[in-house]
Amino acid sequence: MAKYNGPKGKIVRKFGENIFGNPKFDRLLSKKPYPPGQHGMKRRKLSDYALQLKEKQKVKYMYGMLERQFRRFFLKAERMKGVTGENLLQLLESRLDNTVYRLGFAQSRAQARQMVLHRHIMVNGHIVNIPSFILKPGDVIQVREKSKRLSMFHEALKRVDADRMLPWLELDKANLKGKFIDRPKREDIPVNVQESMIVELYSK
pLDDT tens digits, residue range 70-92? Predict the structure, then answer.
């Protein structure tokens, strides 16, 4: 899959759910709860392969990844102990850009990726500008001191309740700092994904 630069609203309508988390897409889906295009309102029965492919594409769009990188993550998940599909989601959630988003420093994963690339984020006191950097339990993520005055961080954090943070993360809102406590359990990851379909697709 090549990098997609078109309207995200079309992607949201394609999957029938707000995979990007922006409230404006909830409004879009309530107005147009069907796929885009001339035949969007016609319901077609999809084959097993088509359903598996759609699920993989959904996860790739959700986490902002291209095929080669996504496949690397899958192969790594396959080599790990445990259930491959769960391992995959744990790895995706352990990415630095995703964690910056989950902590509330960014309003979307795309914005979080830019923050990391522009060297606004530190891990354990060192600047890390690799969005796909995999965090380990105990890692501390914080906004660089020089960047703390930027309004984008404070605007994003306005909508965050530190007391309702995801169980594998800890947020110090006042100091723009967070901690990656541990890899998340599958039941705690708030994504509507059937990861077993992705495993079946790659197993063919």
Answer: 999 999 999 999 999 999 999 99
| Residue 1 belongs to a domain | no
In 10 A of CB 68, how many CB atoms? 8
Q: Concatenated DSSP letters for 74-105? A: HHHHHHSSS-HHHHHHHHHHTBHHHHHHHHTS
Place of tokens 């060297």: 119
Residue 99 and residue 33 share a domain: no
Same domain, 161 and 149: yes
Q: Which residues contact 68 (CB under 8 A, 6 or more apart)?
A: none
Distance CA 169, CA 166 (A): 6
End-to-end CA distance of the chain: 19
For residue range 137-172, list pLDDT tens digits in order. 999 999 999 999 999 999 999 989 888 899 999 999
How long, in residues, is the chain? 204
Residue 177 has which token pair?
């700092």
Q: Rounded to an integer, what distance in angstroms lies between the CA atom of residue 33 and that of residue 11?
A: 12
122, part of any domain: yes
Q: Which amino acid is at 191?
A: V
Backbone angles phi and psi of 35, in degrees to 5: -60, 155
Contact 13, 20 (CB under 8 A): no
Distance, CA of 27 to CA of 178 (rounded, Å): 31
Domain total of the chain: 2
pLDDT of 9 reads 80
Question: 3-class DSSP state for residue 122?
Answer: strand
